[in-house]
């Protein structure tokens, strides 16, 4: 059986591994949140792009109909949508950078968690091997003791 110090060490490593797993989960949630935020910005950009296109189509229709006021209104709407799209593009770039940082942190956390799991597994395996060696040594000692005892018994007889 493994010594109490080794058993305590394995138990401590298991607790640390659980903490690493919890931190990994926390980083995963943060990455998901950053990804959702980025997707939200990209969706808003697509919406503004669609608004620019719609304003262009409406402006052409107004020009064709000879409605200068409608054309000016749609032109202004198109410019505003273009401006908002530009603002959102800056926001998208910021969010993409934040997502990449979160992704890097998550991947590092995942690697650390896997390393900790490996350390625990290796420690457990080492304890099992040592227990097997001790058990085999005890069995060998008993066999050798019986063999010597029998040899002594035969000498006396």
Global shape: rod-shaped
Please name the CATH architecture.
Orthogonal Bundle
Number of strands: 0
Count of domains: 1
Secondary structure category:
mainly alpha
Show unreliable segments.
Answer: none
Order of helices and strands: HH
What is the residue-averaged pLDDT?
92
The CATH class is identified as Mainly Alpha
**Biggest beta sheet attributes:** none
**How much helicity do the residues have?**
over 70%
Instruction: Determine the CATH topology.
Output: Helix Hairpins
What is the count of DSSP helices, taking H or I runs of 4+ residues?
2
**Rg estimate, integer Å:** 36 Å
Strand content: under 5%
How would you describe this structure to a colleague?
The mean pLDDT is 92. It is rod-shaped, with a radius of gyration of 36 Å. It is built from two helices and no strands. It has one domain (4-149): Helix Hairpins (Orthogonal Bundle), CATH 1.10.287. The protein starts with a helix and ends with a helix. It has 157 residues and is mainly α. The protein has helices spanning 4-65, 68-156.
Topology of this structure?
Elements: H1 4-65, H2 68-156
Helix pairs in contact: 1-2
Structural features:
157 residues, mainly alpha, Helix Hairpins, 96% helix, rod-shaped
